[in-house]
Amino acid sequence: MDDTLATVAQYAELTVSMTETEFTGKVSWPVLIEKVEFFGQGHLSPLSGTMVVRDTIEVRRPDDVHLSQAKVFTIRKQPGSIGVDIFVGRAPTNDIILPNPSVSKSHAHFTPVPGTDHLQLVDMFSSNGTFVNGQKIHPFEKHQVKDYDEIRFGPDYLLIYCTPRTFFQMLKSIKP
User: Fold this and answer.
1) Helix (H) or strand (E) holding 169
2) Which residues span the domain enclosing 159?
3) What is the number of structural domains in the chain?
4) Phi-psi label, residue 140: left if phi above 0, alpha if psi -120 to 50, beta otherwise
5) SS3 for 89?
């Protein structure tokens, strides 16, 4: 996928005919997945509307929650963007544009960890803060992100961080 904004359904279509190696060759950047409202009880998986039952994931959706329509943002530099940091915010000059009023124009950025495929998240003194797994991160301090981390940009915009391999496994485990 070349879009910085696509849906879970569009990515799920790719997994139907691809192996993990083929998928990670095509989708080589980590992603942020919009988190829709949780439904059900028990141990819930990172994608809302899903419940882990005996090591499998069963999708349970009320009529108003459409997991397949959750937006997916690719964490990567946009063509023509300068530097190595991947900027996140509401302004059109960011690498990842999050169209939500609780997101600052220049909210945060992801910084690659040299010599690894890991990323660190840095809040850029945003108006409403950046939270990882419910904990506010301090402005300008680097915070290592890992698979399934819940990242909240301001009070209203919650996303799930996934590496390509984990994203593929998540997509394959979703049962309609």
Assistant:
1) helix 164-173
2) 5-173
3) 1
4) left
5) strand
Q: Which of 117, 116, 118, 91 is nearest to 108 (CA)?
A: 91
Q: Do the Cβ atoms of 61 and 69 come closer than 8 Å? A: no
Q: Which of 143, 149, 133 is nearest to 110 (CA)?
A: 143
Say which residue the tokens 């005996």 belong to.
54
Q: To which residue do tokens 């950047």 refer?
A: 29
Q: Which residues pair with 6 in a beta bridge?
A: 72
Query: Can you tell me the distance from the alpha carbon of 132 to that of 110, in angstroms, rounded to the nearest whole number?
Result: 13
Q: Could you tell me the maximum CA-CA distance found in the chain, to the nearest angstrom?
A: 47
- CATH code of 49's domain: 2.60.200.20
Segment 61-112, tens digit of pLDDT: 333 346 678 899 999 999 888 899 999 999 999 999 998 999 999 999 999 9
DSSP secondary structure of 34-84: EPPPP-SSSSB-SSTTEEEETTEEEE---TT--GGG-EEEE-SPPTT--SS
Residue 17 has a pLDDT of: 87
Do 71 and 5 form a contact (C-beta atoms < 8 A)? yes
Q: Which residue has the tokens 């984990």?
A: 166
Tokens of 13: 């279509």
pLDDT, position 140: 96
